[in-house]
Every structure is written in structure tokens, then in C-alpha cells.
Amino acid sequence: MQRGSLQVVMHRGRKVWRAQWRENGRGRTRILGLYKDISRAEARAILDGILAPIEQSRARSRMAPAVTLRRYVLDEYLPPKSRVWKASTRLTTEQLVEDHILSAFADRELSSITRKELQAHLDGLAERGLSASVVGHVRWQLSAIFRMAQSDGLVSVNPASGLVQPRCKAGAPKRTLSVDDVRRVELILEPRDRLMFRLAVYEGLRPGEIVGLKLGDIQPDGLHIQRRVYRGTVDSPKSERSRRIVPPTEGTKNLLTLYVETLFDQSNEAWLFPSEALSTPISYSNVWRRRIGPALKAAGIAGANYQVLRRTWVTHIAQAERDATIRAKLAGHSVDVHENVYRQPDASALRKAMRRLERMRQ
């Protein structure tokens, strides 16, 4: 049981009672009042009132049964989080926690895990070649898990609060397609597959948003993005920013008109890209594996995916539209993500920027 300390000190030219104690491993200080107004007994009573809930929390922590990290994560941490996470977030996060946190500390008691061990674990993940994004997510989840455990009184200090993001190996350059690449692929694809390809590389739609389109989403002002399909499950868009209207390019609009005329079901609730059953949308991964991927390979482009197509759109739209806010609005994400994650200026764009700077200074 800590009692803290009381001292009479000068504060702004006046004698005051100063209290000091420790809370969650850190020193705390508070001025309780003027020395002439408060007796030592009264100052002690104030300090005891401050310390009482702290000591009660520590007592509960000492009396609590030993809880392993796996038990706490599965029984206490993930259930409330899963209620607010989207299905895609839940699946990826649960997999990350299982692979990179529970695999290392599953059977350890929460209170026995130290900051030094957690930092060594993060450093090890970086040395294994995991990306900075994955390591950063592991660090964030560790902090969130132990922060909740601390609020539950199972640990007195959050050992993940001071973790440092280790330096990770640089990943491969993020790829984009050139204008000529896009044109070559379009010449190879059949109308349906060419339309899906264009919606990704000309309109910047995510694959789940493409197959989530219904005929009723095609409006005079553009394509209304209201849903997406993730691993066969129809869901709401990735975020509120993802709910948007995307005016199609003329080439896409013309191809879209011709393609819709070939559909059996012309109702507003019909899927734009239906499966053979008509009642469900087509699998975008199957279309890529059987159609678009082979077309890219035939055009001399290997190793691309839907993310490359979307990154291509973000890079090309930056050359056509200078306003980053408009570009981010069309893409359905924040300006920061648009500029720092997706956009990949090529060497020619960098050279042009430097030439513009030189002309400006002449």
C-alpha cells in the first residue's frame, strides 16, 4: 500500500501543500491547497482520497485469476470489437492477431508479458521481412489489447504503450500500368471483361465495388457506389467516403450501354455482372484468374492485380486533375491515403516538375 508523500513547498510565491504518488508506474504530482488554509491532517485526507481508487484497482489486479493472452483476446477483446468491424476488417484482423500475436504469446499470463519482450517480437517480425504496414498493425493491436486489459484491472501498466516501430525492409516498388499497357489489354478482352477492366483502370473502382453494381446504380449523374462484395458477401462500402458518385468516362459509358443491352434481366435490382445463377454477382477473383490476368500476360504484363489497376487510375487521374480533394472524392478515400499510398508519380512526371521549377525561377 502506497501512502504517497506530502511536502510544503513554495509555489508562485506562496506556501502550498504538494502531494506526490505513483500511478500506473508513473510519478504524479498535485498542489492540494495553500499551507495557511489546510492542516496536515486535512492534506493527508485529500491525498488518501486520491490514492484509494488507485489502490483498489491494484488490489483487484492482484486478486484476479491468472488470465492468458489467448483467453483474454478470444473472450474479452475480439467479441466487442467484432460487433463494429466490417466483415473484411474482422477477418483480416483476426488472422493478423492469430498469426503475429497469439502465435508468440498465446499461453502467457497477461501480467507476465513485458515491454522488452513485445519490442523484441516486433523487431523479429521486421527482420523476417514483414512490411511496415503489417508490423504497424501488430503494434497497434498489442497496444489496444493491453489498454483494454489495463482498464479491466488485469495489468497495472500497459507494456505496449512505449513500443517503437522498427525499421522494416523496403518493399518492391509499387507498380502501375502505362497508357500503352492499358490500351493493349483492352484490345484483347471480351466486352464484359473489358468493362470490368475499364471500371478499375478508368473509373478507379475497387473490385468489390465493380461486382457490387446493380443496374439501378447507373444514373444520369454517374455510377452510384452503394455496396461492395467481399469474399462472396454483399456488404456496405469500405467506408463512408466510399459511398460516392463516379461519372464514367465516355468510353466506359458507351461500352456500358452496349453491354447492358445483352443482359437477360433488365430490372433495377439486377446485378450488372451476374453469375450464372443471375441472383448473385460474379466472383471478381474468378474473372481475374480466367480472363483479365491471362490478357495482361498476353500483353506482356505479368504480376499485376486489381490493386495495380486502381493505383494506375490514381496515378493517371493526378495528371488530369490538379485538385487532390476532387481526386480523393472520386477514389473514395482521404486525401492523405490518395497522395501517400496510391499515387505513384513516374520519372517523367518528376522531370517535368523540375523543369517547371526551373522555368519559374528564370
Question: Main sheet, how many strands, which sense, barrel?
Answer: 3 strands, antiparallel
Output the number of helix runs: 14
State the end-to-end distance: 74 Å
Fraction in beta strands: 5-15%
- From the alpha carbons, calculate the radius of gyration and give it in angstroms: 29 Å
Structural class: mainly alpha
Mean pLDDT level: 86
Going across the biggest sheet, name each strand in turn.
1-2-3
In total, how many beta strands? 8
Task: Give the SSE order as H and E letters.
Answer: EEEHHHHHHHHEEEEEHHHHHH
Globular, elongated, flat, extended or rod-shaped: what is the shape?
elongated
Oligomer: single chain
Low-confidence stretches: none
Helix content: 40-55%
Description:
The protein has 14 helices and 8 strands. It is mainly alpha-helical and 362 residues long. It is elongated and about 90 Å long. The N and C termini lie far apart (74 Å).
Give me the secondary-structure topology.
Layout: E1 5-11, E2 14-23, E3 26-34, H1 40-63, H2 69-84, H3 87-105, H4 115-127, H5 132-151, H6 179-188, H7 191-201, H8 207-211, E4 218-219, E5 222-225, E6 228-230, E7 233-235, E8 244-246, H9 250-260, H10 284-298, H11 306-320, H12 324-331, H13 335-342, H14 347-361
Antiparallel strand pairs: 1-2, 2-3, 4-5, 5-8, 6-7
Helix pairs in contact: 2-3, 3-5, 4-5, 6-7, 6-10, 7-9, 12-13
